Amino acid sequence: MVKEADIVRTSLADEDADELRHYYYQMLLLRRFEERTGEMYVKAKIGGYCHLNLGEEATIVGLMAALKPEDYIFTNYRDHGYVLARGTPPGPIMAELFGKETGVSGGRGGSMHLFDAERHFMGGYAIVGGQVPLAVGAAYALRYQEKPGVVVAQMGDATTNIGAFYESLNLAKLWKCPVLFFIVNNGYGMGTSVAMGSSEPDLWKKGASFRIHGEQIDGTDVLAVRDACRRLRDYAEREADPVILDMVSFRFRGHSVIDSDRYRNPEFVRKGRQEHDPVRNFATLLHEHAIIDDAWLKATADQVEHEIQEAIDFANASSDPKIEELYQFMYATEVANTPGPEDAIAAVKINRGEV
Amino acid sequence: MPIITYRQALNDTLGEELKRDPNVLLMGEEIGVFQGSYRITEGLLQEYGPKRVVDTPIAEEGFVGVAIGAAMLGLRPVVEIMTINFILVAIDQVVNHASKIHYMFGGQVRVPLVIRTPSGGTGQLGATHSQSFENWFAYCPGLKVVAPATPYDAKGLLRAAIRDDDPVMFIESLALYDTKGDVPEDDDFVVPIGVAEVKRTGTDVTVISYSRMTAVAMQVAQRMANEGISVEVVDLRSLRPLDRPTIIASVKKTNRAVVIAEDWYSYGVTAEIAATIQEEAFDYLDAPVQRVAGIETPLPYAKDLSAASKPSAHSLIYAIRKVME
């Protein structure tokens, strides 16, 4: 899937063993969080649309390892892993998926609309392409206020076919905005393959007419992702210049939890999961270099299970958002002639047949 | 109080807010070097420089999105959309993003953004350059929508909008830019968002209007006074939040209501106001509420047809006479 020459192989000799173990831990946390999320969806604990990051663990963990606290991240609706890897505790994330008041977005957002202002995670957005100009705007603000940092505009491969993407490329270059256009290229936009939807299937080339540098990176190799992101992040910040990262990865399941994935050849999927599993491949690599052993793997797996179970328990024990707070967050600046808690209670009672 | 034009009131306010707050910046097509398609931003690039007055390419979806993203990090962009017709290519950013970000993310981030744009149209601008879409935005929870009719309100509401932490659609009118009125020199007066004003008191019939139609209503009210009909004019000033109590109080007093707006008749602003009146003042009405709005075609170019398709003083007088029968 990635040309051999494009891959920068990293020698483990220069690596910090604790850091490598941490990457594995984070990838396993994402993997198991998403698998358990799938289970919770089937149990109807989670409603609406729900998109999992399964298969994209190395892409996410590698990116987060490269980013600095001052950087900002905007993603699409497939956002659970990004918030987790940025450091938000699993409990409030799971609680948001459950629609609870303790959720990261107060139960107002759901799976597709996670947010963590403190960690500069500026939201998951569910209208394809919508987050891309927002990310350029955040980078514009950093430049305007002469602050350090870059902004990640994460998107799927199919987003590179929408107009907002091209307007964003043009404005980011024109206005010298340090943006990483971070394309998670899992080969499919829902059921439409990259080749079916894009007249230029090499997505990293799509910045050419905007004079934006692009690279294709093996998104299943956490170290390759981290190194490329570090290098391009520093370039973007130093030169106040946007870049495109075409992160090639493999989607383990259908587009969303309810997609039965009928359009992909089962053999292709089976083989992909076997060959491009970033978590297992990284474990094998660390094992080969004697950085981890079976006992460590077992202990790490137990710890991850425990953390996720705690998150599920936290979500289960949390309360639903209060009816009287239905209008809370409508406006940041108070304004006349807007409904309040009593109006919310009255309206909800009628809608529930309680009057 | 000095008498200035609506255009001057906007220009003064933009300049004063640029001066007051370094996070305020203007963005839009042709607002700097060209000095503004309708000269609202005249002289501001020269005074405040290209960092504060930003000429954008023709990419409304892109630069409106950039403004929203910049607002999320603390800037206070004031975006000019040349006419409201062009905002349709940016409507995803306004409706799916600006209006929802504060609520949907549990109040964690604010979007202090103003989008200024003239709506409606006169003078044979044709089907695609004469539309009124403020009702599309007034429909959307999370936005604030204001539409001042006078230089005084233009200044007071623009100031309030720029200092507000929510996305505000600021609706102007080409036909109002040269109108004149008193505007105080007081640096800090604001007109509160969400509050209507009784622009003229009367006892026989309430006319409810906003923006250019308020100017029409004021002229008609004067004329009707000569005929012995006392017209009260309620100028909405804000479409969202809508000041229902002021509308209802007036109708309960006069027992008759005419609603006028420049947008198309069906599903337009007049429908919302008429529905509100029948819900909250039905027993006070001595006649059915009359609505005056645009004829429902793509606006034709031909001079006579074009003028005849828009609501006018004539159509308002016709409606007032009808409720007085």
TrEMBL record, chain A:
Cited function: The pyruvate dehydrogenase complex catalyzes the overall conversion of pyruvate to acetyl-CoA and CO(2).
Keywords: Oxidoreductase, Pyruvate, Thiamine pyrophosphate
Protein name: Pyruvate dehydrogenase E1 component subunit alpha
Top EC class for this record: oxidoreductase
Cofactor(s) required, per the database record: thiamine diphosphate
UniProt key word Oxidoreductase: yes
Provenance organism: Candidatus Chloroploca mongolica
Statement: the UniProt record of this protein carries the keyword Oxidoreductase: yes
EC code: 1.2.4.1
PANTHER family xrefs: PYRUVATE DEHYDROGENASE E1 COMPONENT SUBUNIT ALPHA, PYRUVATE DEHYDROGENASE E1 COMPONENT, ALPHA SUBUNIT BACTERIAL AND ORGANELLAR
Residue stretches making up the Dehydrogenase E1 component domain: 25-323
Pfam families named among the record's database cross-references: E1_dh
Summary of subunit composition and partner proteins: Heterodimer of an alpha and a beta chain.
Superkingdom per UniProt: Bacteria
Catalyzed reactions per annotation: N(6)-[(R)-lipoyl]-L-lysyl-[protein] + pyruvate + H(+) = N(6)-[(R)-S(8)-acetyldihydrolipoyl]-L-lysyl-[protein] + CO2
TrEMBL record, chain B:
One Pfam family named in its UniProt record: Transket_pyr
Location of the Transketolase-like pyrimidine-binding domain: 4-179
Keyword Oxidoreductase attributed: yes
InterPro entries: THDP-binding, Transketo_C/PFOR_II, Transketolase-like_Pyr-bd, Transketolase_C
Cofactor(s) named in the record: thiamine diphosphate
Keywords attached to this entry: Oxidoreductase, Thiamine pyrophosphate
Keyword match Oxidoreductase: yes
PANTHER family linked to this entry: PYRUVATE DEHYDROGENASE E1 COMPONENT BETA SUBUNIT (PTHR43257), PYRUVATE DEHYDROGENASE E1 COMPONENT SUBUNIT BETA (PTHR43257:SF2)
Protein name: Alpha-ketoacid dehydrogenase subunit beta
Organism field: Candidatus Chloroploca mongolica
